[in-house]
Every structure is written in C-alpha cells, then in structure tokens.
C-alpha cells in the first residue's frame, strides 16, 4: 500500500502542477482582459490562488509520498488530503487533477508502522 501511495502521490503532484502552470500561463496571457473574465463569472484572484496552491501540490505531494514510504501513514494522509483539498476551496474544478492525491492519502492510511522485534 505504501508504494502505491507513493506512486499516486507523485503522479497526483505532477498533474496538479501541470494544471497550476496551465492556469498561470492562461492568466498571464489574458492579463489585460480581467474585466471580461470577471463578467464571465470567473474570479481571477481565486483562480490565481488555486494555481499557486496547485504548484505547491508538487512539493507537498512528493513529501506526502515519501512520508508514506517511511511508514508514517497518518501524517502522509493528512498532508496528501490537505494538498488535494486546498486548491479546491478556491476553484472546485481543481479536484479533477488532485483526485490522485486524495486516493494516495487514503492508501497512505494503510501504511503500517514497522513492527519492533524484541529478541
């Protein structure tokens, strides 16, 4: 389970970062048209915030995956789930790309701590 959590965390972090970079490049391309974007019902500030959180998802997704590999399942799950949900607070569409982080967080809960053998 911990290896699957690690792989999904890496893939989820890469997908989140790709979406964040796409949103930031789109925002930069349409910088002068912010009023039109706002009229279309899209909040530019929340989209920008979500994009930066998605970029941070690469770092925190990798960290959560490494924590799962080190058998720190509860901490890894908390990091991965928070990383997946944080951008969705600002832009719910982000969950399409961060769902792998949610699944990795659930799998990280199955990472059992190493048992100590007394000899």
Strand-helix topology:
Blueprint: H1 2-29, H2 34-39, H3 44-69, H4 73-90, H5 95-108
What does it look like?
- The protein has one domain.
- The chain is 77% helix and 0% strand.
- By secondary structure, it is mostly helical.
Offer a few descriptive terms:
0% strand; mainly alpha; 119 residues
Number of self-contained structural domains: 1
Q: What global shape is seen?
A: elongated
Low-confidence stretches: none
Average pLDDT level: 90
Q: Helical segment tally?
A: 5
Quickly describe the structure:
This protein starts with a helix and ends in an 11-residue tail after the last helix.
